[in-house]
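Hello everyone,

My group is preparing for a crystallization screen and wants a predicted model to guide construct design. The compound we'll soak is NAP. Before spending weeks at the bench, it would help to have a computed complex in hand. I've included the protein sequence and the ligand's SMILES below. Output in structure-token form would be ideal because that's what our pipeline reads.
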Amino acid sequence: MPSYAVTGTSRGLGLGFVKTLSADPRNTVFAIVRSVTSAGELQKFVEDSIHKNTHIIEADNNDIQGIKAWLTLFIGFTVSDGASLMAYERASLTIDAFPSEETLEEDLLHYFKTNTLGPIHTINAFVPLLRKGDLKKCIVISTTAGSPRVAAETSFAHFVGYGISKAGVNLATAKYAARFKDEGIIFLAVTPGMVKTMPGTEEEVNKVLEPIAQKLRARYPHFEGPITVEQSVNDVLALIDRVTISESGSFVHRDGRDGDSV
Ligand SMILES: NC(=O)c1ccc[n+]([C@@H]2O[C@H](COP(=O)([O-])OP(=O)(O)OC[C@H]3O[C@@H](n4cnc5c(N)ncnc54)[C@H](OP(=O)(O)O)[C@@H]3O)[C@@H](O)[C@H]2O)c1
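Reply:
Good plan to model first. Here are the tokens for the complex, ready for your pipeline.
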């Protein structure tokens, strides 16, 4: 009877994980959102779902007391962390081009708090439950924007705060793996692909993503381009299923390839 806790489930990949996992009645799914009132699609999905195996829990990743408050509910599971922040405000600036030192510092600290420290607080809160669980797997959804090698190879100089905070969570994942290897708990940072999660029509979404895809193809001709939430979720879940303790701490693509590549 696997149990899954998924963060960032109001929309995008987090919601995609909840939908796919809850389709199997043997699973119990805990969908974590930071505000139930702004998670209308999730609420509707849970109300309409036939298996009644999904439970919504409200907690902000940055609010450690809030996370601890509902932890006694659980018995054992896999954690998949989909929450993150990739705000577009100032995202196109390079590291030397911020309007002031204060805005640079504000951005870096904001991203670090949400994308690095948030998952660390969440994982720390979940460790006692991971210990008791049968699966003992914790998956952090990361991104190739957090890869130093990819940044250098592709000349991607923007997404500064996002990339640095994700590189931080990749290393945190490796630290967890080192700490808990002898207890058999697997930690994995997974890049989900370029996934069409942003709001808008197909045309609007492609208009944003295709130029980035073109730039990546200039360096990596095999780059697949934008994919659907369903495809990404299915591939990540297949990876979670087959990952073993020998791979714990790695940063990988959803097909298991080295994440420090495209
Ligand atoms: N989409 C892609 O192409 C892509 C590519 C590479 C990596 N990723 C990674 O995949 C993950 C999910 O991305 P996405 O595209 O699905 O994002 P998304 O659609 O923007 O959804 C982000 C989710 O994170 C939640 N969240 C933000 N800050 C939070 C906090 N402090 N505490 C709790 N929840 C918080 C949001 O909740 P609210 O509704 O409350 O804001 C939302 O549910 C992220 O880690 C992202 O870095 C995505």
